[in-house]
Write a structure and sequence with these properties.
Two copies of one chain form a homodimer. Chain A is mainly alpha-helical. The first copy, chain A, has eleven helices and two strands.
């Protein structure tokens, strides 16, 4: 399972585990696995999260039952892998959009704004991804948090706690969006609080919230 | 289900749903339901979250299968109810400890510190409660957030967003504690970021973090 998902657990200087699972891992995945996951996206979209059984997935992917079990032990495991793939795809698209921003605080801020914009326009995606949330530490945003702490742009106890607090807050926001019960500009309000949590200076916060987002469609 | 859990959905002035489920609701619950849930706490503690089947619960509670289904449709529903009860019990104990604090920001701050202290000493409880998290808006802390916003002690877009961000952050922290992979003083670090997210003034933050907690054992 660990190898399949290309997770590499290492230890950072302060002894905490670091999750280096990234897009690189995604590329390494077996083609058959990707094929099953892409079929699963369709099946989950059509039938919802809880209804599908393994037969639905093997039929949609056009594979034998034994092949399925080579990759996934259960539909729950497939749900997680599918949710991970959808998150990774969004992160990849966002990374492309923000790579030209040099300031790490602005880059990070633009990244979470793009994530939330996507979330707000896709309640079904939110239900799905929030449900099987893994709190993977994606490379670019995690690196940006560390750089911002080093440069005193973020004032937080450490990057790991910052990641937990922000990813928890954003996941809960995605649940709410998925329930369809949020107010106008909910995403901006959540980001506003996330930036406060990071101890971002007022003028940087304003700068982040004022940046023009690249035009839709996109992430 | 809604009636059983004594949830009353109303609308606040700004049109957002308010969840008034509280300890009052807890008292109204049928005795049999409480009995099933208390038996379930034991069963989940002994067998873990995913292993138990309905027969385990009816045997432990000493009830007929039909009776079980009068209260719960599935073990998943029972898991949620059990997690809710455990949260409500903790909230009740915390409410007692903090009721004499007059300042709403200090009261709220002490409340989340007591919650996190309990969480850090009970990783198994964390795994359990975080898994079936409902993000119920408990009366006292939600009232405190509103009062603090009114008095400009918290500077946030609105109380609902504040609740989502904090409950999401705390849930994620509980997952991490449940995994057993957190650093020393992790809970304090999370609370520190939560207070920043609320836009609490520096001196209030210091005051909250410096308050002596009532001695263990307790909440």
């Amino acid at each position: 399972m660990t190898e399949r998902l290309s997770e590499v657990e290492t230890r950072s200087a302060d002894g905490e585990p670091v999750n280096h699972r990234t897009i690189v891992g995604l590329r390494r995945r077996a083609k058959t696995e990707i094929r099953i996951i892409h079929a699963a996206v369709q099946v989950f979209a059509e039938q919802g999260i809880d209804a599908p059984v393994i037969d639905d997935f093997i039929k949609a992917a056009g594979i034998a039952r034994g092949t399925f079990y080579n990759y996934f032990k259960s539909t729950d495991e497939l749900l997680r892998a599918t949710s991970d793939l959808l998150s990774e795809e969004l992160i990849t698209r966002i990374d492309k959009e923000i790579q030209m921003i040099k300031d790490p605080a602005l880059r990070f801020g633009m990244g979470i704004r793009l994530w939330m914009r996507w979330a707000e326009s896709n309640p079904q995606w939110c239900r799905f991804v929030a449900r099987a949330w893994n709190s993977v530490k994606y490379d670019q945003p995690f690196k940006d948090i560390r750089e911002c702490i080093r440069k005193k742009m973020f004032v937080v106890p450490d990057a790991y706690v910052a990641w937990d607090v922000l990813s928890g807050a954003i996941r809960q926001a995605m649940f709410k969006i998925g329930e369809g019960s949020v107010r106008r500009n909910y995403g901006d309000a959540v980001i506003h609080m996330c930036l406060q949590a990071l101890g971002v200076r007022e003028e940087t916060k304003v700068q982040i919230m004022d940046m023009a987002l690249p035009g839709a469609p996109g992430p």
